[in-house]
């Protein structure tokens, strides 16, 4: 396996970064998790746009051009012969000293891993997920915005630990006002009486690219997604709930905090959107192997 680090394609055993890298010391950095389907990188430009937005928000200077990162990403896929898989693109603050000051880090570190992906078991898509709500609140948008796809996932991990203790497969996080923000690694959608709802970004969610795709796919079946504050009650009484993310794709939820959602089976709207999403992933994206 070849991994890109700062301009070089290295063997996995040699792909190492410094213990003085602030990405490691402080979680000071940003990343993207990107899927490869059918020889194409799905939503590559959208991921790169979000990477640049995250960089801007944390005043991180990406030491490569957009085109250079795009090409390095595709080259990583080629060198590893991938047709389907997962790309982890990371930009850290770089090597500094043992103080938090980012000004002491002269150059950001860029690395790109392209690998196969271990999917959720098939049962999760046919039956759905059992989900709980964490006591750990989502970070406040005024502290550091969850819209920044930062390397600091401790907030999500604390919620995930609660989910593990509960025996849940995913975990809902609420914001400081008690409204639903998102899950630890996915956005959340609720269907009630034919309408689709999702929390707004300012409730403490990442602006998920899969979330955005769902807005478009919903429109294609004549439905508008309404961005609005949701409470746990709204989840309990939902007809259907599904989660979205590059990793999870579109995955149904059958239970939240012990309450069965709708019929307890995958609902018709979720099923339709799952099928449309699958078609889209197989038919669009940036080609890795141009003939
Ligand atoms: N919220 C959070 C906190 C995330 O980490 C999403 C929402 C969905 O965003 P996208 O743009 O992917 O639709 C994420 C993304 C994994 C994995 O292996 C997780 C994500 C992405 C890729 C892989 O768990 N989460």
Q: Can you offer a commentary on this structure?
A:
By secondary structure, the chain is of the alpha+beta class. The protein has two domains: 2-115, Aminotransferase class 4, branched-chain amino acid transferase, N-terminal domain (D-amino Acid Aminotransferase, Chain A, domain 1, 2-Layer Sandwich); 123-282, Alpha-Beta Barrel (D-amino Acid Aminotransferase, Chain A, domain 2). Helix content is 29%, strand content 27%. The protein is built from eight helices and 16 strands. It has helices at residues 22-26, 44-57, 66-79, 122-126, 154-166, 209-220, 232-236, 268-283, and strands spanning 2-5, 8-11, 29-37, 40-41, 85-92, 109-115, 129-133, 170-174, 180-183, 187-192, 195-198, 225-227, 240-245, 249-256, 259-260, 286-287. Strands 7, 8, 9, 10, 11, 12, 13, 14 and 15 form a nine-stranded mixed β-sheet that branches. Strands 2-1-6-5-3-4-16 form a seven-stranded antiparallel β-sheet. Strand 10 and strand 11 form a beta hairpin. The chain is globular and about 55 Å long.
Broad CATH class of the largest domain? Alpha Beta
Pick out the low-confidence regions: none
Radius of gyration: 19 Å
CATH superfamily of the largest domain: D-amino Acid Aminotransferase, subunit A, domain 2
Based on secondary structure, the structural category is alpha+beta
CATH architecture of the largest domain: Alpha-Beta Barrel
Order of helices and strands: EEHEEHHEEHEHEEEEHEHEEEHE
